[in-house]
Amino acid sequence: KTLKLAMDADPESLDPHVQLSGGMLQYSHMVFDPLVRFTKEGGFEPRLAEKWEVIDPLTTRFYLRKGVKFHSGSAFTAKDVAWTLDRLKKSDDFKGLFEPFTVAVAVDDHTVDLKTSKPYALVLAMATYLFPMDSAYYTGTDDQGKPKDAIVKTDHSFANKNASGTGPFKLIKREHGVVLELDRFADYWDKASKGNVSKIIFTPIPENAARVAALLSGGVDWIQPVPPQDYPRLEKEKNIQLVTMPGTRIITFQLNQKRKPELANPKVRLAIDYAIDSVTMVDKLLKGAATPAGQQGPEGMAGFDPTLTPRQDLEKAKALMKEAGYEKGFEATMICTNNRYVNDEKICEATVGMLAKIGIKVALTTYPKAQYWDNFDAQIADIQLIGWHPDTEDSANYSEYLLMCPNKETGYGQYNSGNYCNKALDELLMQAAVETDLAKRSELLRKVERIAYEDGAYVPLHWQNLSWAAKKGVHLEPIVNIMDFPYFGDLVID
Amino acid sequence: MSTALVSIRNVVKHFDISGGLLEQLRFSGGRPTLKRTVVHALNNVSLDVRQGETLAVVGESGCGKSTLARAVVCLHQPNSGEIRYRDQRIDHLPPAKLLPFRTRLQMIFQDPYASLNPRMPVQRILEEPLRFHHPNLNAAQVAERVAAVMEQVGVRASWAKQYPHEFSGGQRQRISIARALIVDPECIVADEPISALDVSIQAQILNLMMDLQESHNLTYLFISHDLNVVRRIATRVAVMYLGSLCELATARQLFETPRHPYTQALLSAIPTLGRGRRKRIRLTGELSTPINLPRGCVFHPRCPYAYEPCRLEVPSPLTQPDGAVVACHALRDGRI
Amino acid sequence: MPAAWGRFADSHLMYSFRRDTVAKASLGILLVLLVSSFACPWIAPTNPYDPASLDLMMAQTPPAWMEGGAPDQLPAFVLGADDQGRDLLSTMLYGMRVSLVIGLGAVLVQAVLGIAIGLTAGYLGNRVEILLMRLADVQLSFSTLLVAIFIGAMFRTAFGVASYERLAVPILICIIGLAEWPQYARTVRASVLAEKKKEYVEAARVVGLPTWRIMLRHILPNTLSPVLVISTVQVANAMMTEAGLSFLGFGMPVTQPSLGSLINAGFEYLLSGSWWITIFPGSLLVVLILSINLLGDFCRDVMNPRLYKGM
Amino acid sequence: MHAMTTPSPAAPLLEVKNLEVSFPTKTKTLVAVRDVSFTLHRGERLGLVGESGAGKSITGFSILKLISRPGRISGGSILFEGRDLAPLSEQEMRPLRGDRISMIFQDPMMTLNPVLTIGTQMVETLQAHRRLSRREAQDIAIETLRAVRIPSPEKRMAQYPHQFSGGMRQRIVIAIALLTRPSLIIADEPTTALDVTIQAEILDLLLELAEHEGMGLLLITHDLAVVSQVTDRVAVMYAGRIVEIGPTEQVVHAPQHPYTQGLLAALPQTHAGEPGTGRLAQIHGIMPSLYNTPTGCAFHPRCPVRIHACSEDAPALRPCGQTGVLAACHLVE
Amino acid sequence: MIAFLIRRILQACIVMGVISLIGFSLRHTIGDPVREMYGMSVSAEVKAEARERLGLNDPIYIQYFRFLKNAVQGDLGNSLFYQKPALEVILSKAPATLELVFSSALLITVLSVPCGIYSAIHPRRLLSRMILGVSTVGVSVPVFFTALMCISLFSITLGWLPSFGRGELTPLFGGAWETGLLTWSGISHLIMPSFALTSIMLPLFIRLVRAEMMEVLQMDYVKYARAKGLSERRIYWVHAFRNTLLPVITVGGVQLGILIAFTILTETVFNWKGLGGMFKEAVDRGDTSLLVAYMVVVGALFVVVNTLVDVIYGLVNPMVRVVGRK
Ligand SMILES: Nc1ncnc2c1ncn2[C@@H]1O[C@H](COP(=O)(O)OP(=O)(O)OP(=O)(O)O)[C@@H](O)[C@H]1O
Ligand SMILES: Nc1ncnc2c1ncn2[C@@H]1O[C@H](COP(=O)(O)OP(=O)(O)OP(=O)(O)O)[C@@H](O)[C@H]1O
Ligand SMILES: [Mg+2]
Ligand SMILES: [Mg+2]
Fold first, then answer.
1. Is the bond preceding residue E162 a cis peptide, omega within 30 degrees?
2. What does pTM read for this prediction?
3. D241 lines ligand 2 (CB under 6 A)
4. Which helix (H) or strand (E) covers residue A247, if one does?
5. What is the pLDDT of residues C40-78, one digit of tens each?
6. ipTM field
7. Interatomic CA distance for residues E65 and E87, integer angstroms
8. Under 8 Å between Cβ of D150 and D95
9. CATH architecture, range D12-100+184-267
10. Architecture of E86-316 per CATH?
11. Which of C269, D126, D283, E208 matches a 20 to 30 Å C-alpha distance to B219?
């Protein structure tokens, strides 16, 4: 059966190591297979690794599945895993993530040891990013005399144009930005999978309305993401099913304490948090397509604290402003993207209105994403919007980038444009980084969230929901998950 | 000739119509060359306009009459040669230095519909030159002068608020004349002032011009293609052909004894009232254009008397015993 | 002045106007729209540009007569509310004012630039002309959107975020003005070339008037009627361009929506049933542009049917 | 074609009776031509002279029923070879135009379509009226071009109008008029746009051909001298009416109507005697606009000899003695 | 003729040079491509390094000269996102846009000529007024509005026409050109986008044809053609129409260039994978090399179209014959 698929963008490349992005990972799950993968519930499910064990604090051993074939026909062995890890560590995008790993040692053809430099809690989580590549296929030089394993972002490379993985689908045709055609791989190892999709035709449709229209008019069978304003319409439609799920991308405002002295006052920051009504915002602007947030990590992630609920109280906000001595309010500037997050512009617009109610006059400027980040880094405004999705699917990641004191050397606080800096919080995070006991670690992270909450370190708004819509008969529900990597290999179509 | 008011000396005027560098690019024999397209509008013309006379310039369309007129009033800068006004060279003066001569030399144009700015009422059209040249006049003086001039040309002063489109062609031509008169010039260059008008109106304008000449002691350089008109008004007549002067003589000499073959042909072609016509001289041969001027005498391809030297050499204007100037090899060599 | 008025009233233009129902109707509609948009601070039920007036709870309230409308709050929310909870009617009025200001302002900029360039090119001719007209060609071969994106980004960097909101209107005016001057330049140049040949220009030169004076006092007034004609079309175009820019995310700041950005913002709700958010401003924009276009067509038909942009 | 009555040799070729042409305009109806009557016999050449706007062209065009909208023939009849053209429809007129009646326009620059070769423009005329193959039509065209003295006509057929000089173009227009051997040619100012030397040639040619082919010629011009050289009879128009009509010789040498007299007197060549002397006789004022023609005789405001009756009623054409001249003036006996 | 072409080529070079210079000097304002090329969590050094490697840190003029040097050799730089030469990307997208533009141009021609001529010949008839009225309404509706309304009506409600993409493509010229014009699927995909694109230009052309035709019908040679007894058909279609064409062609050339610009909006809405959509994408991603290349190519296209227009003009107008339009 053929699945006509439309997403907002197609993978940047066919080389899974060229860029770390949602699109690339979605693609990787189609054409490649990871060692292990997340289940819907957040647990781990064996894929190419049948089982695994921790040999010592620095070594995890993976037992690989036998009889697995690459699309090129060569057999999958431990050597491929070692080769892939090596390559990952050369990739600009992935080398940060795989920093803790030192080497993968092939014990035998079907056993491989992953070694880390210090005890590391997230070995398995990282193993979900390890999509073994066909080392034989990617070795040697191509017809232009370039090495086939080169990772090249902006130019021609063998891996950008060709792919051989062990995944359920085999590359047939790819026209960048136009179409990606995949066929079911006949020798796919997972015979247990009920998946019956024999062909995927993947078209990127960046424009929201166009994407929805394509589904409505029957031009495609599956779209993602679905713009929230169209939920009611799609829900009404009998032939269409819509599935949403809370995601892990948190949307926040950062309040720049360095630029704007007023914002260095925690009372003002809290007042702002109280003034912004994220519940109504989610309800009205996002049609419930998000979960109002009071902290960074959503439920289910380590460090989630159910008591940290979204704050909303206009009177309290006014009182706080008064206490802080800004009864009359002040002026501030704000920048936002206008095509990066779901309805980002509208959210900011509404925020301006809400802040006006406590006397803060906000001048809002919005940018397309291509121009946004330079301005974000330059911290050109007092209040800046940022959304964050942890690549590691782990909650410490949020704080490391968004809350820790900015430090050029270590790279911590790289996106902390609020310049919030709290040594205690940094300390807790450093501890959590080396804590392998998950419960203890979770406790540390909970503390982090609480400190930030009480300090008004930033303004949490909501977690964006993930959304998919498909025609009836496409069994969408079972294969989607909060990481937004639908496992199309397992998709069943009636 | 001490009485010369305007002297035109060996004036050459070419118009380069070849456009930008890229448009000149041609290929000849596979090699790129730059080819210019030049209109030879005036080739070495010399004339004197004497004080008080009416010098008429006649010739067929495209022979350079208007170009000559425009060169005299310094609208065109000649490529070579000089224009003198009372022995002062004026053709290369910068606009500021030229201003004093602008009041002495004025011009009347052919098309009564195009020569008045349609967005200005008559009053402003007439005021503008006056105010410009005499900034110290006060409003009353200006108004008085405007009224006086309008009176002189026979336009009612009460019409000063009207716009040009509210007037007939003849009246517009009168306003044109008034505009030229208002700065009190000595010499007026009139470029076919009556050819766009009806016969009955033509007579009115011609009479007006003659009246004004007397009352203001004007000198006219009168451009026309109508030989009948020229015969009436001109003191002397210059005949031009393809940018060259063929013959210059007093009106009587010219109409009684035309000497240049072209003048003869021209005169024989004028339609006259009644059947009894003089024998027409038939011109044969291709018409030349000012872009590809024939070598030698420009008239030779159509000239019944053309012989060898005409094809080779440009005839120089020779003064005849009776004072007429004729540029013709055949005449010089006594063949006619 | 009365004389001039009398002449105008007697003119061919006025005569044809009096007989043309469509033209009269469009002028009427246009006047109503103009007046109501510029009087919006007094007639609009709320001030939608005041962020404090936003009430997200009212977001997407349907028009008062529909189920779920808010008839108790009249006159506010007659036509419902937009996605931010602004009274739609007020927002449309304010938005129309912004659109009109941008349209008129941009046309002014275009006209000044285009006329200056067209006049110089046409009158001086030769090298100047070739240079300027090449420039216009280059400019034409970019799309307005492209130019707008470039200039917009530059302006934003140059003026900083704080003042962007305040300067958005003048910036958009400059952008659209800079992007579309060639239309004027070409039209003006064409008519200057025609006028230049006429003898009244030579007469002015014979008088000895300086070049600039001939250009400004004699030639310019005679090239204005085509300018007037294309101006109507250009106002409509400028408003459309602004809408297009909003569509691509380069338009007015979201807190001060123009009609164009209002339509765009509402578009996403079209399929979901909140049709009024886009249909009302959309229809208003169409009516506004249509009335301008119809007037422009009328002027063109009467004054010079052969005037087309870019000729 | 079937309706064509066989022309009786006695009937005049063209007989215009009380022709009236009017242009309904926005405010009122403008009568451009009023009560015009004349006859033209086979082989005869009639001149129509008058100032600009006098209605000459309109009269000419109305014979072919080619008056541009909103103008229309609002009265009178046009008998061509005995048949009234006034009530005919476009469809019925088409076979006549260019076949029995040809027309020559004023400006040869504007009459020939600039984007078609002259060959095309000649052949299409022939093919519109005759069942001819392209080849045959071309041969006829070449012959005709030769007749109007265009050198190497075969080559010239493939050229475009702008490749010819003004005089040549006018010859081509004449050639096109002659293609179908019409019995009447209407020439509207055929030489006004040309230089004198060329004008003389064209007039000679026209005269020669008209005589040779025995065609009727209606020559419209404002130049009395031209008329006097070419035509047998002449009609003088003023403000939409014929004020004098008669044998050319008579009209030119002994004009009856004050307007004709004034016109002739105003010609610069009239007193051919002394060049450079004296004023021209002039008619004061201008021709009235057709929007407000004065009551009575339209010429009376300018007339030097007007009497009281002139401003009251319009005089009809009346014969002046035995000269064959008709004049519309109260003073003519 | 050769001289004419060389002249045009030189002119194109100048135009493209100026365009590229402008594009180049402004390109940093469009955005930073490196941002889009790396994941968010990639460290700042890595990105800085990448910028250095790509030469984005060099002074603009050095970058420009590098660009010029390569451009002379036909290399307009690499598209950072398509990972191949920008020119190649553009060439692969161009057929889609050209098909769209030319089908619109065809539609415009096919519709505007009869409509314009009809309303010129019968200016007072009801139908003429309706043609003009409807076309004015058409031009008053923003393109994207028209486009979305079309989708909502014809694709979603009625389900007649597909809403996005180009449908089934047939490779031509060994795959260099993929055309949608040979299959029904391809054509059905083309209908709405070209209609939307047509709607903005059609009114202008109808009025243009009408005005020119009316003007021409006043000319002496039309009257003369009548006087020669030609049929109405021949008068309108041979005598008047040929002359009407001249100004229409001249304006058309310029407008065709503008049409290319308008594809940005249309292609975005219809997810038409051509130059316009690519342009929008490149803006979103800050793919500056691609943008500069796009501008250069569109500039070249503009000159090519104008040259073609001049050639056609020359064919129609014997007075020009490829010496250049004035
Ligand atoms: N500004 C100009 N640029 C190019 N060529 C010109 C210009 N002015 C005149 N010419 C050319 O110079 C030649 C002489 O022109 P000029 O106007 O002097 O003739 P003319 O005798 O006045 O003719 P006419 O009787 O038609 O007015 C013509 O061939 C004309 O085309
Ligand atoms: N289409 C028209 N609409 C209104 N009035 C017209 C029209 N055509 C001609 N006239 C009027 O008819 C009158 C006679 O015009 P006609 O063309 O016959 O003059 P004419 O004697 O041929 O003059 P000319 O010597 O200028 O050609 C003019 O006064 C003119 O105003
Ligand atoms: Mg002249
Ligand atoms: Mg006439």
1. no
2. 0.81
3. no
4. strand A240-255
5. 788 877 787 777 777 777 777 777 777 776 667 677 777
6. 0.79
7. 18
8. no
9. 3-Layer(aba) Sandwich (3.40)
10. Orthogonal Bundle (1.10)
11. D283
